[in-house]
Every structure is written in C-alpha cells, then in structure tokens.
Amino acid sequence: MRNVRVQDMVLWCDWGRALEIGAETSAPEMADVRFQDCDILRTTHIALDIQCGDRALVHDIRYENIRVETDDACPTPRMQQSRDERYVAAPLDQYVPNLLVIVISKNPYSKDTERGNVRNVTYADVSVTGRRAPRSFFNGLDAQHTVQGITIDNLRLNGKPANTAAEANLSVGQYVNGVRFGSAAK
Length: 186
Description:
Strand content: over 45%
Number of strands: 13
Shape: globular
Radius of gyration: 16 Å
Number of domains: 1
Number of helices: 0
Helix content: under 10%
Largest sheet: 8 strands, mixed
C-alpha cells in the first residue's frame, strides 16, 4: 500500500480511532500516507493512530494541519459483553481520548506471526482544543521491531506550544528512537 491521501475531512467518531493506520497491517509495506487539513470534532479512542499489528514496514507517514477537539465529557469506551448489556456512563469519568499513538504489538486482528516496524512519521501543525489535555504514547515491541524517526513540529495544546515530551503529555516507551520536536521538512 503506497501513496494514500486523506484530506479536507471533518470527522466525528463515536467509536474507535479517527485517523488510523492499522490495526491490520498484513502487507510487506504501508508507505507514503498523508493525512492533511482534517478536523476531528470527536473521537473516543485515539485521534492520530498507527497500530502495527502485523509484518508491515510502516513508513513515511505524515499528519499535517490537523485540528482536534476534545469533549468536556467523553465516556470511557467499553465493549458490550452481551446483547442485554446497557452502557451506563460514570458521571465523574475523567477519560480523555489519546492524541498521538504509535504501537507495535499483536492485537485481536493480527493475521501474521511476525510484527513489523514503524519509520519516519511526521506530525506537523497539529492543534488540540479542550479542557483536559490528551495523552500520547509511542511503543516499539522489541529490538527487532522498533519505532524510529518521529518528528513533532508545531504541536499546540489550547494554543500553547508543546516543544518537549513533557509539554506534549507524551510517553516514549522502549524500542523507540529518534523522537524530535522542531522543524519538519515538507
């Protein structure tokens, strides 16, 4: 899969992830994907997500000019366990969907026995508005299945620049290398 463009979208996502690559990545390569000029009015899990659950080399991905709104009240997502089960929201729920997520791991949709890698992801001009700041995290799987080369350029939370992992509420896990904040080549 190569040369995919998603642009000029307005998204309202009541269940799931708004702009996602994965969870199924059962292909040799997923490359040159651009999400541009999109507004995410609501998401319940993750706004900008890469799940490498299979063997693909996921690389040269760009999220650019993305605006995300987080709701003051967003119920924690739950999977219905039976047809009779009804969702009851917790009135004091402090849940906020995640903003940026990259993860390499087996998931319920994985088809391959082998996992892949993620390389060269750029987040440029991403802005978030909402009362509570969302969290973000990047995680590789092991020394052979890693996340490398992540650029975060002009991330803004409620108008305030986030120029460090701490300011971005970003957790950088094991097997992740080359996360940098600053200028990103267009």
